[in-house]
Amino acid sequence: MEVGMGIGIGIGMEVGGDLDMQDILVIGYSTRNIVCSARRAGYNVYSIDAFADSDLVKCAAGSKMFDPNEATDVTAISRERMAELINSFGVDFDAIVLGSGFEMMDLTDLTDLPYPILNNPSHVMQEVSDKEKFALKLASIGVVHPYTYHKTNIAMIKYPVMVKPKCAGGGKFNRVVENVGELNSYLDEISNMNVDMGLTINDMLIQEFVSGVPVSVSVISTKQRAVAVAVNEQMIGVPWLTRLSFAYCGNITPFETPYEEMICEMAEDLIMELGLVGSNGVDFMLTYDGPVVIEVNARFQGSMDSVELSTGINLFDAHVKAFAGELIPELQVRPAAKHFAARAVIYAEDRVLIDEKAINGLLKEPVVDIPNVGYVAYLNEPVISVLCVGNTRDDVMANVKESVCNIRDIIGSKNN
User: Fold this and answer.
1) Which of 106, 146, 234, 246 could form a disulfide with 122 if both were Cys (CB 3.0 to 4.6 A apart)?
2) How far is it, in rounded angstroms, from Cα 369 to Cα 100?
């Protein structure tokens, strides 16, 4: 690709179907699942992320790591620094894909980076990713969503409520509070947090607490049509994976529910209403009263591994082609699951140091997101993920739990 071909093509714009995509750069907090999917689809893929996991490095034609401060706070990365990192590969990229944590970064005014950005427009991302703005949007179109309170009206709150960041994902800072005392205590805690966390009281949202089964619907869409690819069970705050009550711990695909048709249609309609293109996900809570929309992830989702293993569909290739206005043949109708698949994220229960002996043990398990020798994970930080496939959910979960137990034994002796 000649550099000049990309000029004028910005975030969220469809690229022509005859544009030959080969060299792709993925930028995100953790990009292994996107990079390896792109490699399997035949793309020459490069990566900039916070980890450069060993299995990512094997899939990528080249990879770079953010500095620790940059990885923690995206806003700390200047446009000049981003341009420097991108240009350091010496490659004229055919496109850039922004992953989790970086999906709202606007690169369109970097004139020395004339590459198509295969993500939704930044102004749409702002509306969708800001949970406060998103709640207003859903209310305006009549979609059932947890009621959102304003911090100026604390006296009007009906407890319990969920307090969470407006934009941050992963569930690390989500907290259920039962009364005004607990609410004020948690807001004070946020206010007093180390600034490196990048959160203030103004970044927090207070919503009606909704209980039920957390699920997501993975969707691929062009500007003309959206197709639900899979319904996924979300593993949130699983005690044998994390000590954090609302931390994202992975997915199981498919999730079988009488609401499947309803939530697939709701997800497709919502994605079209929001004007989203490519791979996007809609999170639901399945309550006794029916499905409640929680949020939309307008980017590749953590369920990418389990969806691809379950359906046999390459989501990266489907994403790229969707930006050219094309749905891949497998998505002319909603696909059926071929297998059950699960990804489980294991969090550190104490300080964990990964040395060569630990790596040798870990590689005997069905793992991805494999850290490099010398990696240190602290309490409540992710260490590694397990991927399993089976004919039933029970089979898959039995294999996952066995591997998690083995991994806990392997890394347990490294706590010090």
Assistant:
1) 106
2) 15
| Token representation of residue 403 | 């591997």
Amino acid identity at 381 = E
Residues 69 and 153 in one domain: no
| Inter-residue contact 84 to 66 (CB < 8 Å) | no
| Least confident segment among 107-111, 319-323, 371-375 | 107-111
Residue 88 lies in a domain: yes
* Amino acid occupying residue 53: D
Residue 308 CA to chain centroid, in angstroms?
A: 15
Domain that includes residue 174, residue range: 147-208
DSSP E strands: which ranges in 34-130? 44-49, 62-65, 95-98
The pLDDT of residue 367 is above 70: yes
Question: 286 and 173 share a domain?
Answer: no
* Contact criterion met (CB below 8 Å) for 31 and 47: yes
Longest dimension (CA), the chain: 60
Let me know if residue 125 belongs to a domain.
no
Q: How large is the average pLDDT for residues 179-194?
A: 77
Give 295-308 pLDDT, tens digit per residue.
899 999 999 999 99
CB 249 within 8 A of CB 242: yes
Q: What is the DSSP code string of 357-399?
A: HHHHHHTTSSEESPPPTT-EE-TT-EEEEEEEEESSHHHHHHH
- At 189 the pLDDT is 78
Please return the burial class of 306, using the count of CB atoms within 10 Å of its CB with bins 0-12, 13-18 and 19+.
buried
Rounded to two decimals, the pTM is 0.88
